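@channel sequence for tomorrow's demo:
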Amino acid sequence: MAYIADHLSVAELGRRARTWPDACATRHYQAIWLLAQGKPFWEVAAMTGFVQRWLEQLAQRYNQFGPDALGDRRRRNGTSPRLLTPELLDKLRACLAEPPPDGGTWSTPKIAAWMAAELGMVSVYPQRAWEALRAIGWSIQAPRPKNPAAAGPEAQAAFKKNSPRPSPRKKPAIPAGRSPSSARTSTASG
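structure tokens (generated this afternoon):
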């Protein structure tokens, strides 16, 4: 049987296991709640799908640091961003104010190539360029392509002028009534 510190009551642990918005933290609260009820590690492992050693580490972490130790802690592990640094994002904002060096419009492959050159890397995935655009509040937008063989305004007006008028309403191809091939039957007995 595991010792679980009384940072939260068993009832509060159960409530958080059912209603907490973060899925990872919800599973952690569920495991701690089951351990706080006196269930052994092997039984909680079978119920939650966690490995027994992870449950021991989770219980130790909860006992030492309390409820703040539960959930996905990778996002607040104290490391700084390695690729999308604030300096790079500021340079990207300034760079997007000008047209790209090869002309045309900016695209994620062009932004990825710019980022790779700026960071001294061989290449950067276009997905990272998309993430950089989202980080500065931008989105990819492209104009709708024009058909090169499209008619001009004069030809469009002439076509509209000479096209036949549509008929008011066409009759349906299949009649909507009952089938004329079968005789009417009665369900009344008599």
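heads up for whoever presents: The mean pLDDT is 84.
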